């Protein structure tokens, strides 16, 4: 999924469910959704997106494993920039992202 404007959805801008693993979401503008990205699957790459003005920018469900979030701008989300139900001991990677003026930048379950 590359180069799209994904906005004004009542629930999820992008929803990865069950067998939809190993996706690349790059260079998109994702805004004004309940959850910009709602991820239940594994081995996805979320890179170089602008994720703004959603309730929650990225929501990682407890089944999500080995996902990489890198070089995204996550800003002005009203609940969380990134919310993860995945415990810290299970690897999802976040690096080189800019978190700007979210109500809560990140929440990761311990």
List keywords for this structure.
110 residues, mainly beta, 5-stranded parallel β-sheet, globular
Number of strands: 14
Task: State the helicity in percent bands.
Answer: under 10%
Largest sheet entry: 5 strands, parallel
Strand percentage: over 45%
Number of helices: 0
* Radius of gyration from CA coordinates: 12 Å
Sequence stretches where pLDDT stays below 50 over 5 or more residues? none
Give the class from helix and strand content and strand pairing: mainly beta
Query: What general outline do the C-alpha atoms trace?
Result: globular
Topology:
Elements: E1 5-7, E2 12-16, E3 24-26, E4 29-31, E5 35-39, E6 45-47, E7 50-52, E8 56-60, E9 68-70, E10 73-75, E11 80-84, E12 93-95, E13 98-100, E14 106-108
Parallel strand pairs: 1-4, 2-5, 3-6, 4-7, 5-8, 6-9, 7-10, 8-11, 9-12, 10-13, 11-14
Short overview:
With 110 residues, the protein is mainly beta.
Task: Give your account of this protein's structure.
The chain has 110 residues and is mostly beta strands. 0% of the residues lie in helices and 45% in strands. A five-stranded parallel sheet has the order 1-4-7-10-13, with no helix packed on it. The protein has strands at residues 5-7, 12-16, 24-26, 29-31, 35-39, 45-47, 50-52, 56-60, 68-70, 73-75, 80-84, 93-95, 98-100, 106-108.
